[in-house]
Amino acid sequence: MIPFMLDVTDKPVVIVGGGEVATRRVHKLLDAGAQVTVIAPELSAQLEAWEAAGEITAHRRGVRKEDLVPAWLVMEHTGSAAVQKMVEATCLQHRIWCLLGGNPADSTFWNMATAHHGDLTVAVSAHGNPRRAKQAAETLIKHARQQDL
Predict the structure, then answer these.
(1) Dist CA 11 CA 87 (whole Å)
(2) What is the pLDDT of residue 139?
């Protein structure tokens, strides 16, 4: 793995899953300007609100292979091994960046924990350990604040 930042502005991103983790991912993607489509039988209240406001597109059903092909980036957060396997195979076949929730070993990218201070962004990976990465990012940004970086 190599760390880098992605510009997702106006890029089609598909989120498979409609729960709490998917909602957090969508929030960050909207802030970054992505065109987000969520595919899940059920959506969180926040996802429903974003759909009602026209900020995301949502399909209340299971994911299909053809849903993934137009995407530039896919994030899967269903907890279903069968769905993960299909998403992984489809994304690999079509060379689509793919994050499989809870399965960093089979993902083609990982989210990095981030913390901000002014225009400084710290991004940390702990190779699949999100809690450790978040703690490290927060510690580093706290140090940056103390040093007025």
Answers:
(1) 19
(2) 94
